[in-house]
C-alpha cells in the first residue's frame, strides 16, 4: 500500500516504515559483525612470539653494546669492554629466544 492512500492511517504508515527501517538496520549490523569478525580476532600466538623474539634480539645487541661503550668510556679500555658486552648481550638474547621457543602454547 502506498503512503499516500487516503484510507490508511498516517500513524500506521509511520509504524510500518519504522519497523522496516529497524529490520534493515539489524540486518546491516549483523552483516557488519560477520564481516569484521575475522579482523578483530586476537593475533595468533606465533605472531606475538615472533615480536618477542625480535625484541629480545634487538635489546640484547643494543643493550650489550651500550653498556660496553659506557664502561669503555668510563674505564678507558676501548674497545675491549664494548666487544665483551656485545657478545654477552648476544648470548643473553639467544638464551631468551630459546626460552621463548620452548614455551607451551596456551
From TrEMBL:
A GO cellular component entry from the record: proton-transporting ATP synthase complex
Keyword Transmembrane helix among UniProt keywords: yes
Transmembrane segments annotated in the record for this chain: 53-74, 80-98
Keyword flag Cytoplasm: no
InterPro entries: Atp1_alphaprobac, ATPase_put
Keyword annotations: Hydrogen ion transport, Ion transport, Membrane, Transmembrane, Transmembrane helix, Transport
Organism domain of life: Bacteria
Function, as annotated: A possible function for this protein is to guide the assembly of the membrane sector of the ATPase enzyme complex.
Family that this chain belongs to: Belongs to the bacterial AtpI family.
Protein name as annotated: ATP synthase protein I
The organism of origin for this protein: Rhizorhabdus histidinilytica
Upper classification of the organism: Bacteria, Pseudomonadati, Pseudomonadota, Alphaproteobacteria, Sphingomonadales
